[in-house]
Amino acid sequence: MITAQAFPTIRALQRSAWNDCFPGALEDWDYYVAVENAAINDFQWRYLAVYEDGTLVAVAAAFITHYRLDTTVSGAGKRLTERVERLWPGLLQLGLYALGSPVAERCDVGFASGVADVRRPLLLKHLLEAARQDADDFGIGLVAVKDAPSKDPHWLESCRAAGFQSMPSLPTGVLPLPYGSVDAYLGSLGKSTRKDLRRKLRAPGPRVEWRRTIDDVLPEVMRLYEATLTRAELQFERLPAGYFTGVLERLDERAVCVLYWVDEQLVAFNLILVDEHRLVDKFFGHDVAFTRDYNLYFRSWLTNVDYCIQHNIAVYECGQAGYASKLRLGCEFQGNSVFFRHRNRLVNGLLKLVKLFIRPDRSDPAMAAAISET
What we know:
Layout: E1 2-7, H1 15-21, H2 29-38, E2 44-52, E3 55-68, H3 75-87, E4 93-99, E5 110-111, H4 120-137, E6 142-149, H5 153-161, E7 165-168, E8 172-176, H6 182-187, H7 191-202, E9 207-211, H8 218-231, H9 241-251, E10 255-262, E11 265-274, E12 278-286, H10 288-294, H11 296-310, E13 315-319, H12 323-328, E14 332-334, E15 336-342, H13 345-358, H14 365-373
Parallel strand pairs: 4-6, 12-13
Antiparallel strand pairs: 1-2, 2-3, 3-4, 3-5, 6-15, 7-15, 8-13, 8-14, 9-10, 10-11, 11-12
Helix pairs in contact: 2-9, 4-5
C-alpha cells in the first residue's frame, strides 16, 4: 500500500534516508537544515514523503509563500507590472504551495535506491496528490512545481495527467570544463570575448581569499548582499545572515565563501558549494563602485574556472541570472519548467491567460536565447 505524508521540518526524516534518495547531492539534508535554521522571512517549509508498505520510497522539498506573478519578469514587462501593482495592490500576488525550494538550483524528487524508473510516474502522482491535499489544509489554491528539469519526461507526464499548466522557467547555466588551463578555456571563446577577458586579467585585480567562516566580516558581506539584491531585477527570496553562516557551518568542506579585497576593503564575495564533481555558484555580491575598475564579476568567474581546472572538477554550475554574459562565456543551459494549477477553475483560466504575458522569455532577449537553446 502506498501512502504519503507532509512534514514541517526535514528533521522529521532521517538524514541517511533523505540523502539515500539524493545520492551525491550538494543540497542535501544538512543544506536544508541550514535553510530552516536561517528562518527566511515569508517562507514556510514542507517536506513530502511517499511510503510503500511503511518504507520510504520518494521525497521532495516544498514551501509555502505569497508569490508575485511577475517574479521572473524583467525590463519593460517588469515596469508595466509594477505600475499595475501600484494601481491595484495585491492583484498580482497569490498564496502559493510549491514543490521545490527558493534556495535550491532545481526541483528534484528523490527516489530510494532500488526504485525502478518505470515506477517513478506513479510515485510522482502520489507526491502531487499529497501536495494538493497539504495545500488544501492550509487553504491555498495554487499548487506549483518550481524549476523542474525540462528534459525529465516523468515530471511532464505526471503534471499533465494531474491537469497542470506549464511554462518555461529560468534556465540553469552550466559550464563544462574539459580544459587543462584557464588559457585553454579562454581559447574556446569567441575572439572578442577572449581578447576582452585577457585584457581584464592584465589589469590590477583584487586580493582573493577563500574562507570557511565569515563571522568577522559578516556585516560587510550582508552590506554587499543587500546592495546587489537592490540592483537585481529578478528576485524571489531575501536571505538573512544566518543563511550564509549556516550553510558554511553545516556543509563544512562542501561550502566556501570567496572574498575579494581592495586593500583592506571587502568589495565582493561569492558563496559556492563544491565537491569533486561540480562547483555550484550560490550567490555573488559586489560593490558597484569597484566593479568596473576591478572587473569583479569576470574576476570571480575566472577564479571559479581556475579552481575547477586545478581540482579536476568537470562542471561549473552558475545559476539563473546574467544570461547575456553567460552566453559570451561559453555556458550551456539546462531548461527548467514551471507547472501549476489553481483549484478554482476561474482563477486557473485567468492564469492560463496571464502566463502569455509573464513568461520570462518575453522580456529579456538574452534569457529568451538561453531558453531557446534548451
